[in-house]
Write a structure and sequence with these properties.
Layout: H1 2-24, E1 28-33, E2 36-41, H2 42-98, H3 101-110, H4 118-131, H5 135-148, H6 153-166, H7 170-183, H8 188-201, H9 204-216, H10 223-242, H11 246-255, H12 258-261, H13 264-276, H14 280-293, H15 297-303, H16 311-324, H17 330-342, H18 346-359, H19 363-375, H20 379-395
Helix pairs in contact: 2-3, 2-4, 3-4, 4-5, 5-6, 6-7, 6-8, 7-8, 8-9, 8-10, 9-10, 10-13, 13-14, 15-17, 16-17, 17-18, 18-19, 19-20
Biased composition (Polar residues): 403-413
Subcellular location: Cell inner membrane
Pfam families: HemY_N
């Protein structure tokens, strides 16, 4: 500011000095142009030059002001349209939420060019088109969204894949997600969506290859993703088990991430697959190792169904598990009943069956005991078991099992274990 003031004072002083000099030295100035000549006082010429400069300055200032007015008007118009677009975005989102999808799409698209966030306008408009099942229009709007912001490829792609999945366009969703994984390999939501798509497509081998990444991203903890994991393992286990490829089954198990191999449901599925494939020896070893560390009713149930090469040793092991239990676990009692039944120690098997069923009714247990009682020539007790098992299957209400003592000698003289009191089921 001071600089401009000094310059102004210098200019005024210079003009004043020139004026005084011209007035003090009057003279005639002649201007010749071809055959034309013009004479005037030097003071008059100086005044005309000064006037011309002032006029030129005013003209230039006027032009600058005019262009400035245009820019000001443009800024004002842009601000007005931007404000209107902002209100239209809010109103469009309200219409979208209320289900007025046609109105929402029109509001959002019409004002997208003037919006500060055109990407949001096009994404919301695409959602509106998706909701009214205009899928081609939806994809066109998503393309415009990418054009409005080239850095939003992943965001737009995720929205597109999500909408394609919601409309059961699984092939298109799969293609979109594969492209997104190339752009962002570690994106957790892309990985989760891809797993869901593969699950719906029943692409079990592809899902199996995806499981390690799902584990790394900790995406298998919720119920929905646990279901995906379970279905994948079950399908692949059954595939190899039905073909009897125990070597492929075991190789697949070893390649699985440790958290999956330590998962209860995964272990049970694998054990059942080994049994289905006919490798009861490997199944026996797997279940024994786990039950020695921690008890599991599901594995114990399967352990009682498989064939054992050394029943005596297996029964001794099961009795050790019984001693380590604080109380008589009904699943363990049922396991012992089945093992004694396989060894044809029917008196022991009968007692264990009765003790287990009086704690926890079991439809298969009733049937197995009834068949055993028929073998032991106890038709009345067998009929009682059949009746109780049928009632339990229909009513799911347990009743106390009380077998009628028989006078004939037992087929095996081994003494039965003490029965566990009925718990009121």
């Amino acid at each position: 500011m001071i600089f401009y003031l000094i310059v102004l004072l210098i200019v005024v002083a210079t003009v004043f000095w020139l004026g005084q000099w011209v007035l003090a030295n009057p003279g005639i100035t002649t201007i010749t142009w071809g055959v034309w000549s013009l004479e005037m006082k030097t003071a008059t010429l100086a005044a005309l030059i000064l006037l011309a400069c002032v006029t030129f300055y005013i003209f230039v200032a006027f032009l600058r002001h005019g262009f400035g007015m245009r820019r000001t008007f443009s800024r004002f118009r842009a601000a007005r349209l931007g404000s209107k677009a902002s209100r239209a975005l809010t109103q469009g989102l309200i219409q979208l939420t209320e289900g007025h999808w046609d109105k929402a799409e029109k509001l959002l698209v019409d004002h997208a060019p003037y919006s500060d966030t055109p990407l949001l306008n096009y994404l919301a408009a695409a959602r509106a088109a998706h909701m009214r099942e205009a899928y081609e229009r939806r994809d066109e709007l998503l393309k415009q969204a990418i054009e409005s912001d080239s850095k939003a490829n992943v965001a737009v792609g995720v929205s597109q894949a999500e909408m394609q999945f919601g409309s059961e366009q699984f092939e298109q969703a799969h293609a979109t997600l594969v492209r997104l994984r190339e752009l962002s390999p570690k994106h957790p939501y892309v990985l989760k969506l891809l797993a869901k798509v593969l699950y719906r497509q029943e692409s079990w081998e592809a899902l199996l290859g995806l499981l390690p990444d799902l584990v790394k991203q900790s995406l298998l903890k919720n119920d929905e993703m646990s279901k995906v994991q379970g279905a994948t393992l079950q399908a692949m286990f059954q595939h190899y088990a039905k073909e009897g490829h125990t070597d492929k089954l075991q190789a697949m198990w070893k390649k699985l991430p440790t958290p999956i191999r330590e998962n209860h449901d995964a272990i049970l599925l694998y054990a059942k697959a080994l049994h289905t494939a006919g490798d009861d020896l490997a199944c026996n070893g797997l279940i024994s190792n786990i039950l020695n560390k921690r008890w599991d009713d599901g594995l114990a149930d399967l352990f009682g169904r498989i064939q054992h090469h050394s029943l005596g040793n297996t029964i001794q092991q099961a009795e050790k598990w019984q001693l380590s239990q604080a109380d008589n676990n009904p699943a363990l009692l049922l396991l012992l009943a089945r093992l004694y039944n396989q060894q044809k120690l029917w008196g022991m098997a009968k007692s264990y069956y009765e003790s287990s069923l009086n704690q926890t009714p079991n439809a298969e247990g009733y049937l197995e005991l009834a068949e055993l009682l028929e073998t032991m020539k106890e038709p009345e007790n067998a009929q009682r078991c059949y009746r109780l098992g049928l009632r339990y299957c229909i009513r799911h209400d347990g009743e106390k099992l009380s077998l009628t003592p028989t006078q004939r000698p037992q087929l095996n003289p081994q003494a039965p274990p003490a029965l566990t009191p009925y718990n009121g089921l």
